[in-house]
Amino acid sequence: MFKAIDQNFIEKNNKKFLKDQNKDFEYFQEKLLKLKLNLGLLKKKVFEFNLALPSWGVGTGGTRFARFPGIGEPTNIFEKIEDCAVINDLTGSTSSISPHFPWDNVSDYSELKEHATHYGLNFDLINSNTFQDFSNSKSSYKFGSLTNIKKKIREKAIELNIDCIKKGKILGSKGLTVWLGDGTNFPGQQSFSKSLENYIQSMKVIYKKLPKDWKILIEYKPYEPAFYSTVINDWGTSYICAKELGPKALSLIDLGHHLPNTNIEMIVSRLLDLNKLGGFHFNDSHYGDDDLDTGSINPFRLFLIFSELTNKKNFKNFNKISYMIDQSHNVTDPIESLIQSTDEILNAYIKSLLINSDELSSLQQDNDIIGINNLLKNAFNTDVRSLIKQIRLENNNSIDPINTYRKLNYKKTKSKVRTKKIFSLSGIV
Ligand SMILES: [Mn+2]
Predict the structure, then answer these.
(1) Residue 289 C-alpha to ligand 1 middle, in angstroms?
(2) Where are the alpha helices (DSSP H) in 209-333?
(3) Burial (CB count <10 Å: 0-12, 13-18, 19+), residue 120
(4) If you measure from the C-alpha of residue 151 to the centroid of ligand 1, how many angstroms do you get, rounded to a whole number?
(5) How far is the CA of 256 from the centre of ligand 1 (A)?
(6) For residues 75 and 422, is the Cβ–Cβ distance under 8 A?
């Protein structure tokens, strides 16, 4: 750690927040005593939680209309790693990066791994991209990739995924996330049944190539880019495929990949009960897959999701699940958004740990609904920020990461060296 930012700079900046922090943390500790919670244990749980950053998230995203890039944007995966390291040096919670291939293709993957290690980062799950063409070849993904009616195109998409596994092995990753844009815009355009069958057959070939200690995550989404039907459209379809493939196949929940008002926390519970919850893509949304910053719209929902993950029954599996941020930063500096989102996720996580599972069960036994509501709201309304700050202080990270980051003038400095024009990718990913 502390390769991207001088540790002394962080420490110096922390000093001006110390007085307030000590006061706030004292108050929080009193709260913990009342709740009969062990501070050491709580700190350990937060410290052990790892959140992966998406390589594409440090660049400015865009809508399908346009992209408005900021200054000093990373122009390649090496620079993206550098930006991720800035976030990790400041927050101490994001020591891994999730690459996307072919976007992040390089000529030497050992060199890439070394570069990340130098910055104190490792590689999380690999993402394969078969939702766009990367060459002018005739075998286009226009009508689908792993589910395409043409065998030759399915084989090409399978090959791309296998290639991702090969790259991931060198990088030290332990899994592959597959999300497809495959679907249709017209009734009757494709057979629902045949395309799902093609998907399962294609995934079986990829599954066979997985190393022993790898997992493969099936990400679902109801619509977009296909607007009439999507092959892997919901958690049920994802679960059926994961079950068909075997124990290494699990479902991935991207919070934005649901129709409005879907009870996501209930899906979390279901998939946990079925032992098929493999990972999360965190973001927030208001209308559809908006890819807004996590917790910026509905922090209470995020808290309820974590409450399912951390309850007495499920917590043993908490650290087996992969957690990643997946959002598109159109109007902010992506580094600031990712710091803020990390804070929102930690806030929701810690607040969920304040819920007493036994007390909740007993209130449920009595059908004491107001009591239950109070129990949840008391946890949700507790200000846990001083705990996050304290952990950062003790681990030499920044008490106020955004403040420290702004003092760095990082992007302005980078804009002098990152002068290469980036290929403009419009569209949310
Ligand atoms: Mn996603």
Answers:
(1) 9
(2) 235-245, 264-273, 299-310
(3) middle
(4) 26
(5) 8
(6) yes
How much distance in Å is there from the Cα of 45 to the middle of ligand 1?
25
CATH of segment(s) 7-414: 3.20.20.150
Q: How far apart are CA 126 and CA 134, in angstroms?
A: 18
**Residue 370 predicted with pLDDT over 80:** yes
* pLDDT of residue 386 exceeding 80: yes
> Residues 277, 280, 286, CA angle at the centre, nearest 5°?
125
| Cα 348 to ligand 1 centroid, rounded to whole Å | 20
| 326 Cα: distance to centroid of ligand 1 (angstroms) | 5
Distance 291 CA to ligand 1 centre (A): 9
Whether the CB-CB separation of 428 and 84 falls below 8 Å is answered with: no
What is the per-residue pLDDT for 261? 94
Of the candidates 360, 303, 332, 413, the residue with the CA atom closest to the CA atom of residue 57: 332
For ligand 1, the distance from its centroid to the CA atom of residue 43, given in whole angstroms, is 29
Domain borders along the chain are 7-414
Question: If you average pLDDT over residues 86-95, what whole number do you get?
Answer: 97
Q: How far apart are CA 388 and CA 309, in angstroms?
A: 19
Is the separation of the CB atoms in 385 and 27 below 8 Å?
Answer: no
Q: Is 81 helix (H, G, I), strand (E, B) or coil?
A: helix
Three-state DSSP class for residue 228: coil
Q: What is the pLDDT of residue 426?
A: 46
Helices (H) and strands (E) in the chain, counts: 16, 12
The single residue listed with the structure tokens 């390769």 is 3
Average pLDDT, the chain: 96
Q: How far apart are CA 401 and CA 21, in angstroms?
A: 14
Find, among 273, 362, 358, the residue nearest to 309 by Cα: 273
pLDDT of 429: 47
What would the DSSP string read from start to end of 361-383?
A: HHHHHTT-HHHHHHHHHHHHTS-
For residue 1, what pLDDT is reported?
59
Kindly list the distances between the CA atom of residue 293 and the CA atoms of 175, 258, 383, in Å, as whole numbers in the listed order: 25, 16, 20
Ramachandran region of residue 367, left (φ > 0), alpha (ψ -120 to 50) or beta?
left
pLDDT-derived band at 140 (thresholds 50, 70, 90) equals very high
Query: How big, in percent rounded to 5, are the helix, strand and coil portions of the chain?
Result: 50, 10, 40
Ligand 1 center to 319 CA (angstroms): 19
